[in-house]
């Protein structure tokens, strides 16, 4: 590899490492949102209120919560009781 290629290689490594950290933080925030919304729903908060507090639409939040519980999801939140 040339000197310039070495420099570009190292820059790309640094950018990928930074992005990896950001993606891990994002995943953690999604898991936290999923858990907090489940708890809020359990105590009677409406989808609309929770969505508004998160800056989301009601439909978007419901879809996000359903997707969080799909097989292969990266969130570790508990499933909601259906009773």
What's the quick description here?
The chain has 83 residues and is mainly α.
Could you characterize the architecture of this molecule?
- The protein is mostly helical and 83 residues long.
- It is 71% helix and 0% strand.
- It has three helices and no strands.
- It has helices at 3-42, 47-54, 58-68.
- Helix 2 (47-54) crosses helix 3 (58-68).
The topology string of helices and strands comes to HHH
Query: What is the 3D shape?
Result: elongated
* Separate helix tally: 3
Strand content: under 5%
List keywords for this structure.
single chain; 83 residues; mainly alpha; 3 helices; disordered C terminus
Ordered list of secondary-structure elements with their pairings:
Elements: H1 3-42, H2 47-54, H3 58-68
Helix pairs in contact: 2-3
């Amino acid at each position: 590899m040339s000197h310039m290629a070495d420099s570009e290689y190292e820059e790309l490594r640094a950018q990928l490492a930074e992005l990896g950290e950001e993606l891990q933080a994002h995943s953690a925030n999604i898991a936290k949102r999923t858990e907090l919304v489940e708890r809020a729903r359990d105590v009677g908060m409406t989808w609309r209120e929770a969505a508004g507090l998160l800056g989301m639409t009601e439909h978007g939040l419901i879809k996000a919560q359903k997707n969080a519980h799909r097989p292969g999801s990266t969130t570790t939140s508990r499933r909601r009781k259906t009773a």
